[in-house]
């Protein structure tokens, strides 16, 4: 019965609103209610007449600057407010409504219908009830009206009485943050997070801190992510989401065993409290058993239309045969790979469904995003595993997977390592062909080298040792470091505590006159950290002077606890010596300075006065 009443109420209210908008006069509504209203409530004229005044009283009117014009509720012996001429007790007072009529209903329906300047003025009036803004914004978001959803939800939080926000505001807040992210409104996103953290209700502050932690993880800023997690833990110590966040954070930091240990802690703690839904409890149990696999499965299941083909891709990888032989030659003192006719045919078949082209001038880019068409090319690839006999197909697939999943450590074992093993089979064939360099610009070498770079990046967070070993193999073949892998290997060596090897690599790179200047800051600062760890602070200080000359912003940003971000203009490489370059180094490596006893304090003492 309740569901029937809700459906009837929505239909009647929508019709009533259309009648009101004709001239915003009460008699017009009542004439409609008697003429057309009954057919919307099973022919019940009395119900239609009784319902219309209730809805009129809560309807915002443009002629009153979006205020309502509520009717005075009559006494039992007074004339009925439906203008029937009868006493209330003999008219609408004798009617019992089948269910509740929400006091914000007509505002919500109005917000769904108004457009352009009218909607803007209505929101600016500040009269819209929070619940109406909340529901209208959620409906707009669910129907794909992103601009309208953003406009309405912004009003909810801009005009909010924070202490009285309903707890249903949590999904609205998350949707608005996602809208800002999707539409590129990063300053608005940061301002909303700051506002909630500053004065929002407790339940929203915890969610904001969790989202902030995830944003820092997406940007590889592990130090800031850790700080946000600690704040979230202090704000909402019993939130089950914290188990999920901490597992992700630890996996990003490369602490797999600790991620499992902490996941078991959260499961024991939250299970004892006994107030979790069975699904939540099962997720925590799975997380405690295997954090990486659980997060990977959750991500795949959340991919909606792509969940099944992505799982099929994993199954395909598990059954991959040995990599076929390639045409590798040693010519004029260098090694060269030449694509065969069969490999070209396989790649052409793949390219018929995977229509994005690798951009030759960039290391890891396509001319268009391949993922909107993934519903076509993923199933086709799974149906034609022989396509992976072509290095060009492996290159495209590695680039695509890295662009979507490369920042997620838990995806490395199932998506990146199988492809890496296939590539390594081909690189072993290159090594067998002779002791000579494999230059980027020769023959089809770039296909193998670019695929290798994509897989190194894809495994960097979730399979660090495998990533470093592949990078070192590529550096051995391409001693000119066309891929810029030295800095990545240096970072990995420092994270593994292999400081002597890190120092040797950094010294060779700094001495190389042909080295890429964009990697110089990382090489110099890596050398400083390695020397400090090896208890050679005087030498570390001298190299630090060189680093400061190269980039005067680096020390300041490393020492600051919460500096203003300085991302590069296009999200890619930053200019050598710029604040953006210093920011990139901070996000990638400050956590290593922080976990090295005394290193960050020593570094800050070295800052020029």
TrEMBL record:
Pfam families: SEC-C. SUPFAM superfamilies: Sec-C motif, TPR-like. It comes from the Bacteria. Gene3D superfamilies: 3.10.450.50, Tetratricopeptide repeat domain. This is SEC-C domain-containing protein. It comes from Halomonas elongata (strain ATCC 33173 / DSM 2581 / NBRC 15536 / NCIMB 2198 / 1H9). The lineage of its organism: Bacteria, Pseudomonadati, Pseudomonadota, Gammaproteobacteria, Oceanospirillales.
């Amino acid at each position: 019965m309740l569901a029937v009443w809700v459906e009837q109420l929505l239909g009647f209210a929508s019709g009533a609103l259309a009648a009101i908008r004709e001239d915003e006069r009460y008699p017009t509504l009542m004439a409609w209610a008697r003429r057309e209203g009954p057919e919307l409530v099973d022919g019940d004229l009395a119900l239609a007449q009784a319902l219309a005044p209730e809805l009129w009283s809560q309807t915002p009117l443009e002629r009153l600057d979006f205020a309502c014009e509520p009717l005075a509720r009559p006494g039992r012996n007074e004339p009925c407010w439906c203008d029937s001429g009868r006493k209330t007790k003999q008219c609408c007072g004798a009617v019992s409504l089948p269910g509740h009529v929400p006091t914000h209903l007509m505002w919500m329906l109005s917000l769904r219908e108004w457009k352009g300047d009218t909607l803007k003025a209505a929101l600016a009036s500040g009269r819209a009830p929070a619940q109406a803004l909340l529901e209208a914004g959620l409906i707009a978001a669910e129907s794909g009206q992103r601009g309208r959803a953003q406009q309405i939800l912004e009003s909810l939080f801009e005009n909010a009485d924070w202490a009285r926000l309903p707890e249903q505001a949590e999904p609205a807040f998350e949707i608005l943050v996602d809208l800002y992210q999707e539409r590129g409104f990063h300053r608005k996103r940061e301002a909303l997070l700051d506002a909630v953290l500053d004065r929002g209700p407790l339940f929203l502050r915890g969610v904001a801190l969790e989202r902030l932690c995830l944003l820092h993880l997406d940007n590889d800023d592990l130090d800031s992510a850790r700080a946000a997690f600690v704040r979230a833990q202090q704000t909402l110590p019993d939130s089950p989401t914290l188990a999920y966040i901490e597992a992700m954070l630890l996996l990003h930091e490369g602490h797999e065993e600790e991620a499992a240990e902490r996941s078991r802690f959260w499961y024991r703690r939250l299970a004892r409290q006994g107030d979790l839904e069975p699904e939540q409890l099962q997720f925590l149990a799975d997380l405690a058993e295997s954090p990486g696999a659980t997060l990977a499965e959750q991500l795949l299941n959340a991919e909606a239309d792509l969940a099944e083909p992505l799982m099929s891709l994993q199954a395909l990888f598990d059954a991959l045969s040995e990599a076929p032989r390639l045409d590798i030659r040693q010519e004029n003192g260098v090694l060269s790979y030449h694509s065969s006719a069969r490999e070209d045919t396989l790649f052409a078949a793949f390219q018929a469904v995977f229509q994005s082209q690798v951009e030759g001038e960039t290391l890891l880019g396509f001319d268009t995003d391949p993922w909107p068409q993934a519903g076509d090319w993923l199933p086709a690839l799974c149906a034609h595993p022989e396509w992976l006999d072509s290095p060009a197909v492996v290159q495209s697939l590695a680039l695509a997977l890295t662009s979507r999943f490369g920042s997620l450590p838990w995806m490395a074992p199932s998506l990146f390592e199988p492809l890496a093993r296939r590539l390594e089979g081909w690189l072993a064939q290159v090594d067998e062909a002779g002791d000579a360099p494999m230059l980027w610009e020769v023959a089809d070498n770039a296909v193998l080298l670019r695929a290798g770079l994509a897989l190194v990046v894809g495994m960097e967070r979730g399979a660090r040792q495998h990533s470093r070993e592949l990078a070192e193999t590529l550096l051995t073949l391409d001693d000119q470091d066309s891929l810029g892998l030295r800095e990545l290997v240096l970072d990995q060596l420092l994270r593994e505590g292999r400081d002597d090897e890190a120092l040797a690599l950094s010294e060779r790179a700094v001495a190389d006159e042909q080295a890429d200047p964009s990697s110089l800051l990382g090489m110099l600062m890596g050398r400083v950290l390695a020397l400090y760890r090896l208890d050679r602070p005087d030498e570390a200080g001298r190299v630090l002077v060189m680093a400061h000359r190269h980039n005067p912003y680096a020390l300041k940003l490393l020492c600051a606890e919460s500096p203003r971000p300085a991302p590069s203009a296009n999200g890619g490489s930053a200019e050598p010596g710029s604040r953006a370059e210093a920011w990139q180094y901070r996000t990638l490596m400050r956590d290593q300075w922080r976990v090295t006893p005394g290193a960050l304090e020593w570094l800050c003492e070295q800052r020029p006065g």
